[in-house]
Design goal:
The chain is 80% helix and 0% strand. By secondary structure, the chain is mostly helical.
C-alpha cells in the first residue's frame, strides 16, 4: 500500500494540476513536509552535515594511522629540505612548518574522501520535495498524522493508482470546465438577448415600477459580471434557483421530469438497437443484395422523416383511426410509451444501422476473419464473435452520443405526444427567457452528454485491448 501511494504521489507531483490538487487536499501533510524540506536544504544543515563528515573522516584517519603517516612523512620531508639547503631555521620553526603542511595535507585528503564518497555527495545535494515526503512516509508517527489530517489526499492517490479510476477522475475534472464554459456562453447570449423577462412575464401593461421591482428581486438589475459570478456560485453550491414563471424550484422541476425522459430514452434505445444491429449485420453480410438495398432504403427514410410528422401519422392511424394506442402520454399507462419510443427509435435506428453496416464491411474481409473461416468456424460464429466484436467501437460511439442527446430531451417528440419531459420544459422556458431554467437545462445537458461520452470511452477499453493498455500506461 505504501509503495503504491508513493508511486502515485510521484507521478502526480510531476504534473502541475495534480500537484496543486494533491497539495490542497493534503495541506497539513504538505505543510509538515515543506518545513522538513526547508530544514533539510538549509545552509546551516548542509554545513552541519559537511562538518560531521569531516570529523568522521578525521576520526578514521586517527584510527587507521593515516594521520600519523602524513605527520611522519611531512616531518621527514621538512628535515631533509632543511639539511639539503643548509637552512638555519630552529626546531620550533620547523615544527610550525610541519604542522602547517600536515593540516594542508589532511584537508586535501578529507576533501578527496568526501568527493569520492557518492552517498555523501547525494546527501549533500539539494533534496527534492517529493523525496522528503518519501523519507517521511517511513516514519510511523508522520504516517498516522498524515492519514488523520489528509484523508482526501490519500483517496486521490488511491484513485490515481488505478488506471480506470485515474481516467474517470480526469474526465470528470474536464467535465467541470465544459459545464462552466457552456454556462458562460449561454448566459452571455441570454444577457445580450433583446428579450426582457420582466415584460414577457408581467405583460405589456406592466408599469415601470413593477418591472424595476421584478428585476431587483431576481437580480437582473445588477452588472453582467456580478450576475455571472452569482450563477457560477449557484452551480458550485448546487442551487439552481427558482424559475421566473411559477417561482418553482428549478432543481426539483428537472428531477420530476428526469424519470420520464429516462424511461422514454431507454425504450427508444431498445427499439433502435433491436432494429438497427440485425439490419446492419445482414446488409453487410449480404452486400449489394436485395436485403441490403431494402434495409438501407428504410434507414435513409428513417433519417429523412421528421419526428413531428411521423408522430402525427402514428397518432392519426393508431390512435384516431384504429384506436389501438392512446394519443397522449400518461405515466400510469405503459402503452402510451410505444409511439414516442418508435418515433425516437426510428431516427436512432437509421443512424446505427448505417454505422453497423459500414463498420462490419471494414472488418469482414480482414485477414483474421479469413483465418477464422479457414479454421472451420461456422459463419455465424465468425460474424458474431470476431467481426461484430471488432466493429463495435463506431457503433457504440453513435449509440452513446444519441443516448446522451435523447437524455437531454427530445422537445419535438415530447410536444407531439404531450410528454412532460425535460426537453419540452426547457424549450418552453427559453422563449421567456426564464434564465434560471435555461441555465439549469444547459448544466443538465452538459453533464449528461459528458457522462455519456465517459461511459462510451470506458466501453472502448473493454471492446479494444489496445485502448485498455493505453489507459493503463498513461
Amino acid at each position: 500500500m505504501r509503495s503504491m501511494i508513493l508511486d502515485a504521489a510521484k507521478k502526480m507531483y510531476r504534473r502541475p494540476l495534480y500537484r496543486l490538487l494533491m497539495i490542497l487536499l493534503g495541506l497539513p501533510t504538505f505543510v509538515v513536509t515543506f518545513v522538513v524540506y526547508l530544514m533539510h536544504n538549509s545552509g546551516i544543515n548542509k554545513k552541519k552535515r559537511m562538518e560531521d563528515a569531516r570529523q568522521k573522516i578525521l576520526a578514521g584517519m586517527k584510527t587507521d594511522g593515516t594521520l600519523k603517516r602524513i605527520q611522519a612523512e611531512t616531518e621527514d620531508y621538512q628535515k631533509n629540505k632543511r639539511s639539503f639547503f643548509a637552512s638555519k631555521i630552529s626546531d620550533a620553526e620547523l615544527m610550525k612548518q610541519v604542522d602547517k603542511e600536515v593540516e594542508k595535507e589532511t584537508q586535501a585528503y578529507v576533501t578527496k574522501k568526501i568527493q569520492d564518497n557518492h552517498e555523501l555527495q547525494e546527501l549533500l545535494k539539494r533534496t527534492s520535495f517529493i523525496n522528503v515526503f518519501e523519507a517521511l512516509m517511513g516514519n510511523p508517527i508522520f504516517v498516522v498524522f498524515s492519514v488523520l489530517t489528509s484523508i482526501p489526499f490519500y483517496l486521490l492517490t488511491l484513485i490515481y493508482a488505478n488506471a480506470y479510476g485515474k481516467y474517470i477522475l480526469e474526465r470528470l475534472f474536464m467535465m467541470i470546465f465544459v459545464v462552466f464554459g457552456v454556462v458562460f456562453l449561454v448566459f452571455t447570449i441570454l444577457h445580450m438577448s433583446p428579450m426582457d423577462p420582466a415584460v414577457n412575464i408581467l405583460g405589456q401593461t406592466a408599469t415601470q415600477d413593477q418591472i424595476v421591482e421584478f428585476n431587483r428581486i431576481y437580480g437582473l438589475d445588477k452588472p453582467y459580471l456580478v450576475q455571472l459570478l452569482q450563477v457560477f456560485k449557484n452551480i458550485l453550491t448546487f442551487d439552481l434557483g427558482n424559475s421566473y414563471q411559477g417561482n418553482e424550484v428549478v432543481f426539483d422541476a428537472i428531477m420530476r421530469r428526469f424519470p420520464i425522459t429516462l424511461e422514454l430514452t431507454i425504450a427508444s434505445l431498445i427499439v433502435s438497437v433491436a432494429i438497427a444491429i440485425p439490419a446492419g449485420i445482414i446488409s453487410a453480410v449480404k452486400q449489394y443484395s436485395s436485403f441490403d438495398y431494402i434495409f438501407m432504403l428504410i434507414a435513409l427514410l428513417g433519417l429523412s422523416i421528421p419526428n413531428f410528422w411521423l408522430g402525427l401519422i402514428l397518432i392519426l392511424n393508431w390512435s384516431i383511426n384504429m384506436e389501438w394506442l392512446p394519443a397522449t402520454y400518461s405515466p400510469d399507462n405503459w402503452k402510451t410509451l410505444i409511439m414516442p419510443a418508435i418515433v425516437l427509435g426510428t431516427a436512432l435506428a437509421a443512424s446505427v444501422a448505417r454505422m453497423t453496416r459500414s463498420s462490419m464491411l471494414e472488418v469482414i474481409n480482414a485477414d483474421y476473419i479469413v483465418t477464422a473461416r479457414a479454421k472451420g468456424l461456422s459463419k455465424t460464429k465468425v460474424i458474431m464473435r470476431h467481426a461484430l466484436g471488432n466493429a463495435m467501437i463506431p457503433i457504440v460511439t453513435v449509440i452513446g452520443l444519441q443516448f446522451g442527446g435523447m437524455l437531454g430531451g427530445s422537445a419535438v417528440t415530447e410536444k407531439v405526444f404531450n410528454v412532460n419531459g425535460i426537453g419540452s420544459y426547457i424549450v418552453d422556458k427559453q422563449f421567456v427567457p426564464d434564465i434560471p431554467v435555461v441555465l439549469a437545462g444547459v448544466v443538465y445537458v452538459a453533464i449528461i452528454i459528458s457522462i455519456a461520452n465517459l461511459l462510451v470511452d470506458i466501453l472502448y477499453a473493454f471492446l479494444d485491448p489496445r485502448i485498455k493498455s493505453k489507459i493503463k500506461s498513461s
